[in-house]
Amino acid sequence: MSAPSKGGASRDGYGSALLRLSSDSRVVVLEADLGKSTKSCHFRELYPERTISLGIAEQNMVLVASGMASSGKIPFASTFAIFTERGFEQVRNGVARPGLVVHLCGSHGGVHTGTDGSSAQSIEDLALYRTIPGMTVMHPCDDLSAEELTVQLLNHDNPSYTRTARNKTPRMYDQETCKSLKIGKGSVLREGGDVAIISCGVMVSESMKAAEYLSSKGIEATVVDMHTLKPLDTELIDELAGKCKGLVTAEDHSVIGGLGSAVAEHVSYNGGTPLRMVGVSDRFGESGTPQELMEAMGITYGDIAISCESLMS
Amino acid sequence: MDNVQLEELARQCRRHIVRMIHSAGAGHPGGSLSAIDILVALYANKLRFDLENPDWYDRDRFVMSKGHASPAVYSILHEVGFISEEDMMSFRKMGSVCQGHVDMKWTDGVDFSAGSLGMGLSFGLGCALAARMDSSNRDIWVMVGDGEIQEGQFWEAAMAADFHSVGRLNLIVDRNRIQNDDFVEVQMEVGDVAKKLSSFGWDVKEIDGHSMEEVVSAIEWSSNNIGSPTAIIAHTTKGKGVSFMENNPSFHGKAPTDEELRMSLEELT
Fold this sequence. Notes:
The complex is a heterodimer of chains A (313) and B (269). Chain A folds into 2 domains: 7-170, Rossmann fold (3-Layer(aba) Sandwich); 182-312, Rossmann fold. Chain A contains 13 helices and 14 strands. Chain A has helices at 10-21, 35-38, 41-46, 58-70, 81-84, 88-96, 125-130, 143-152, 203-216, 234-243, 259-267, 290-297, 301-312, and strands at residues 7-8, 27-31, 51-53, 74-80, 103-107, 136-138, 160-163, 169-170, 187-190, 195-199, 221-225, 228-230, 246-254, 275-280. In chain A, helix 4 (58-70) runs parallel beside helix 6 (88-96). Chain A is globular and about 60 Å long. Chain B has 269 residues and is α/β, with parallel strands linked by helices. Chain B has a single domain, classed as Thiamin diphosphate (ThDP)-binding fold, Pyr/PP domains (Rossmann fold), CATH 3.40.50.970. Chain B contains 10 helices and 5 strands; from the N terminus they run ααβαααβαβααβαβα. In chain B, strand 4 (203-208), helix 9 and strand 5 (230-235) form a beta-alpha-beta unit. In chain B, helix 2 (29-45) packs parallel to helix 3 (70-80) and helix 5 (120-133) packs parallel to helix 6 (152-163). The two termini of chain B are 20 Å apart. Classes of the chains: A alpha/beta (313), B alpha/beta (269).
């Protein structure tokens, strides 16, 4: 699959998806004063009667969404990833426990968020939501895949959390290829028999770069866009574990509890496939450009390549 | 039902409450007994629901935010026909439809999954916004405890309800002045709740929450007032109806012993 050159931030895809979903009158959008950032603002502009402004009050927003879901609506609520965490217990007790289908989107996830600094860089959101029974957890890698996966939530029976990114990253899909995406199914972007890189979000393009670099050194890598962390595509992981010497996970998220942990939890049962995790070690971010921060945190394509090489020796 | 009938029904529910909690060996009698007169008036005379179709989309909603007062909810749900005596008496036991805290996933006739305080008004607001979008005249009732409104989320919801002018949102504050550890005034006094909610744009009425006449009339007032969100501050007595539980913080979350059950039922005949 070739990567088109145009870029797009996954949050833009979320905004476009809401517009596509607008034809269903059950769809409602909830905002907590960050609609311009999460991109729900486009829906608000066209459908103000179905957009609820809750002000800077995330806990209330989560339960308002839950009440609406109990009354036949399909709520899409968004704020920064980090601020969804203020309503974490509300998601746990007020949404997931009664099984109400609310779709929560946290934008500006990861250190890639950049200069806002560590207060805005959620590196634990995926871990948190993964622990909630029945939650679907996604982290798409570009605008087109975020749009496609968000649109698919319309017919999804579980509550969900989707992390989007603030900044543009290279597109991994085009209008046609993104149609093959499916919630819960990893997307193989590149095939190689030596090592498999399983990544999500902004790290998918880094993983593709790492694979190209490795190829020049004679190592062939499979690259998977594991846009859905939960439910995890364990079938695909087993297949990769069977054909490759090892697995490398790559995420702009703490190595504690995120994609790497999810994969580790699974492979611990299948004979202990060698695994390396590229992610933010147990530390906070800081202000800086996305590139500077990724270098400082050790989550560039070079770091992925080093991990892959270590599995080959 | 007239007020005398409602009072007798409330007495019957009080007997269920103490029996349920005694049988479970755990539960919250104080806040169940303070709330029950209001629940009886609502369920017997006001709420529109369908026993044959508990999920009827246009039913009125009752959001019990102080979910630990579940025995009060189960007692009236039993009396109106949603749950059997056997189910009611299985309260808190493994597999029971009567979970420790009210839970919409487990019990027909329950509209909210409570247990974590401070969330119910937000949920009710969501129900009210959805009803307005559907051009429905279903009413949304929310009951909170007075200790509960120490939660910041309650005030987020109170502000949002006024901002969105949801007239069919009806709040009842069970002002029994006792919370888990001690009296509310010791833990974190919530003060003049009526004044605070008024300043948030709510129409507010204060009543004696054990005077059936005042309860019934306040419910009518609230239901008819659809211009803005309304709140009834019901001044109540924790443990009302059982003398040794009344105004006694130790009966916030404690089951009666065999002897205490006997004494309770004697007082509630």
